[in-house]
Automatic annotation (TrEMBL):
Protein name: Putative ATP-dependent Lon protease
Species assigned in the record: Bifidobacterium pullorum subsp. saeculare DSM 6531 = LMG 14934
Gene Ontology biological-process entries: proteolysis
The keyword Transit peptide is assigned to this record: no
Bias (Polar residues) ranges: 539-550
Lineage of the species this protein comes from: Bacteria, Bacillati, Actinomycetota, Actinomycetes, Bifidobacteriales
Cross-referenced Pfam families: BrxL_ATPase (PF13337), BrxL_N (PF20442), MIT_C (PF16565)
Region (Disordered) location: 534-581
Length: 749
């Protein structure tokens, strides 16, 4: 069957316009096996043997690449075996990384084979002329080696009979620019997303742009980028697999000699050889870094140079710092700053001010299998080589005909914005031709990333002057402000020391949404109305005499979750005028009692059952031996949603589950589902842990605000229902019918 029948419009365009430099991205996993070959090498081979759209031809090409890897790829531990094969057979074909240097004493080019472990192999000058990258970083090649031992002194028996690069070895920008002209901007961005392996249909326009920011260090010289966020979002992947011009190293392995220069030998470090040096696992407050290293890094990041003894050396390598965060965004904004995870030596205004862009890692989703594309994209080595050669181009001033940055911005602020803008232009509009309407989103993105850096610097260093991150359009004097997304999401926490700024953002939002609000909406918040309904119902409905068949006091109405703004506004009121926060109002409805529910009742929700008894808690322990099957794990997920809704988002809430194992054949699935809950709720500030205990049968919820809830049936209170996502019962607990069960509320403090 022809694969074209399953292709979308974009894939058809890609394969029609540039078939020789594209590959179907899902084929890489099919051929890699245990070969430690970079992705760009595999894609190069696939582009040679499986670039067709005919499925039968693709299958044959994949088999061909598998055979080449199995027969010719050199594993380091098998180097002696391969050397023996070359000797015994007289000639043998290998895939290895080859680097060439000129031996001045013999006036000959000599090659070193990285995995095979041989060197001084004579290379024909014509081969070097055709593949100049052999002399720079080395190239992965498919080589025919011949063994010819003569017994002469100092002679090397290895002979290079034939060399074929299996990665790009020349510049093809002219063709690349011609190809770009045949795609719209949206199509081109989607093509770039597919080229790095992602399915663009699963990402918003903003998410796509942030993914492209990860690529800027490859296309922009001396670009300093930091990305901090939850683990598992692919922060380091692009720096290890995307380009032969990038180097990913552990943040704990950095030394002055390794990074900049070895003063003993005079040999330059990584910044002298690579376009991008990325520091993985850079975060971690317990980590240490030498003052001399930090000082040299600060000088390099600012001046693009470093000292070697008495001389000064220039380099072009971009610096990328990636690391994991331990807390969610509101927690960091409330308690510290968005750089809180950095080692003390790097949590330094002088160092951080040299960062051009803070990429918000918390906006990237955890990597899931469905995010990967099955469509076509550029062979990554082809794209990487194009980006490498575009580092010579500068579009940093291209927007200045149409837009003017605020005069309050510092030189470093403006330089950072220009470099980010230039990088995005080279990625999306590589010819430099773009309209003001096309440039403006790129400019706003560039401003936002630098603003995130500067706003946090103002928290860390009180002497740092705040500036206005805005711009004006040509012909207009009206400034257009740029806000970070977390600034809009959590204004009171973001501007915790500037209530005037938070109030200004809130006023902007109120104006924005005013047409959608009714008179009643503007006179009283939904939260207040919900809470008042709870309070009124509470006094009428719960007593020891009537509790047997009724929903508890706090159940009659489900309050809308609290916002950070409400908590802050309440806490800043004068003591004599202080009103209860929404969380305090909910907690005030909790009362001791025992309730029995009839079978097939409706209107019973976790919010009504548990909300007031966990409102404001920071530690919750739940025992339920039957969080085993998928629907029971779903019930627990809904309980975690209730915890999320009834606790302060600027605090972390720890929830510990004690449950039992499911049947042996399903244990892996049970653990996978619980681990997924850990991941997704961890990003929301719910720190979920669990343990298995086969001896317990009790069912209870205990919170650190003094309540114990004894659960007759645990969380499994609902009758079975159709789990089709179109069924409203999957989202509305109050529509579900319940099993007969009992709940007891006990005050413990």
């Amino acid at each position: 069957m022809d694969a074209m029948t399953d292709m979308g419009t974009l894939d058809r365009s890609i394969t029609d316009i540039c078939p020789e430099y594209t590959v179907r991205k899902d084929l890489v996993g099919a051929v890699k096996g245990n070969a430690l070959v970079p992705t760009y090498v595999l894609e190069y081979l696939l582009s040679k043997y499986a670039t067709t759209t005919d499925q039968a031809s693709i299958d044959a090409g994949v088999d061909r690449v598998r055979t080449i890897l199995a027969d010719n790829y050199v594993h380091r531990e098998e180097a002696n075996l391969i050397q023996s094969k070359i000797r015994e057979k007289g000639r043998y074909q290998v895939i290895d990384k080859v680097q060439v240097a000129l031996n001045e004493k013999t006036d000959q080019y000599e090659a070193t084979f990285e995995n095979l472990g041989i060197s001084r192999v004579i290379v024909d000058p014509e081969t070097v002329r055709k593949n100049p990258k052999l002399l720079v970083t080395g190239i992965w090649c498919l080589c025919m080696l011949v063994y010819a031992y003569s017994g002469e002194k100092n002679e090397v028996p290895w002979r290079l009979h034939r060399l074929m690069p299996v990665q790009m070895s020349h510049d093809d920008r002219e063709h690349y620019l011609a190809v770009r002209e045949r795609f719209t901007a949206g199509e081109w961005i989607d093509l770039l997303m597919q080229s790095v392996g992602f399915n663009p249909s699963l990402f918003s326009d903003r998410a796509k742009l942030l993914h492209l920011v990860r690529m800027i260090p490859f296309v922009e010289r001396n670009y300093n980028l930091i990305e901090l966020g939850p683990k598992g979002t692919g922060k380091s992947h692009i720096y290890s697999e995307f380009s032969p011009h990038g180097m990913l190293i552990s943040g704990g392995e950095v030394t002055v000699a390794k990074l900049f220069v070895n003063n003993t030998t005079g040999r330059p470090g990584l910044v002298g050889f690579w376009d991008v040096v990325a520091f993985d696992e850079f975060a971690g407050r317990a980590k240490k870094a030498g003052k001399d290293l930090v000082d040299i890094m600060k000088n390099y990041m600012a001046n693009k140079s470093f000292s070697r003894g008495v001389s000064v050396m220039q380099a072009e390598a971009s610096m990328v710092f990636v690391g994991n965060t331990s807390h969610n965004v509101p927690y960091m904004l409330k308690n510290s700053d968005l750089f809180e995870e950095l080692p003390a030596q790097y949590h330094d205004p002088a160092f951080l001010d040299r960062i051009h862009y803070y990429l918000p890692g918390w906006e990237f989703e955890q990597i899931r299998s469905e995010m990967f594309t099955h469509g076509y994209g550029f062979v990554v080595d082809y794209l990487a080589e194009i980006l490498h050669n575009q580092r010579d181009v500068d579009y940093g001033a291209a927007f200045e005909r149409y837009f003017t940055l605020s005069s309050t911005l510092s030189t470093r602020d403006k330089d950072a914005i220009r470099k980010t803008f230039s990088g995005l232009m080279k990625l999306i509009y590589p010819s430099g031709n773009a309209t003001p309407e096309q440039m403006e989103p790129l400019l706003r993105c560039a401003i936002e990333g630098r603003k995130r850096v500067k706003d946090q610097l103002c928290r860390i260093d009180s002497t740092m002057a705040e500036v206005d991150f805005s711009y004006t359009r040509a012909g207009s004097a009206d400034p257009i402000a740029v806000r970070t997304l977390e600034e809009a999401d959590y204004p009171d926490l973001y501007w915790r020391d500037r209530p005037d700024a938070a109030a200004s953002i809130a006023a902007e939002d109120a104006t924005l949404f005013a047409p959608l609000l009714t008179d009643s909406d503007t006179s009283a918040s939904a939260e207040s109305r919900g809470i008042d309904a709870v309070a009124q119902a509470g006094s009428a409905e719960q007593s020891d005499d009537t509790a047997q068949t009724q929903v508890p006091a706090a159940e009659v109405s489900e309050p809308v979750p609290v916002t950070d703004g409400e908590v802050s506004q309440s806490s800043t009121a004068e003591p004599e005028e202080r009103k209860l926060t929404p969380i305090e109002r909910w907690a005030a409805q909790a009362k001791e009692g025992h309730i029995e529910f009839r079978e097939d009742q409706r209107g019973v929700t976790y919010a009504k059952l548990f909300g007031p008894y966990i409102a404001g808690a920071k530690e919750i322990s739940i025992k339920d031996p039957y969080i085993r099957k998928s629907y029971q794990v779903r019930n627990f997920a809904e309980f975690l949603e209730t915890v999320f809704n009834y606790t302060d988002r600027s605090d972390e809430v720890h929830v510990h589950l004690i449950t039992g194992y499911t049947e042996a054949q399903y244990i892996d699935e049970q653990i996978d589902e619980l681990n997924t809950l850990q991941t997704v709720f961890g990003q929301l500030g719910i720190v979920f842990t669990y343990e298995f205990d086969e001896s317990g049968h009790d069912r209870s919820i205990v919170s650190d605000i003094g309540w114990r809830i004894i659960l007759g049936r645990g969380l499994d209170i609902y009758q079975p229902f159709d789990g089709n996502w179109l069924n409203p019962l999957t989202r509305q607990q109050r529509l579900r019918r319940v099993k007969a069960f009992e709940v007891t509320y006990v005050r413990e403090m």
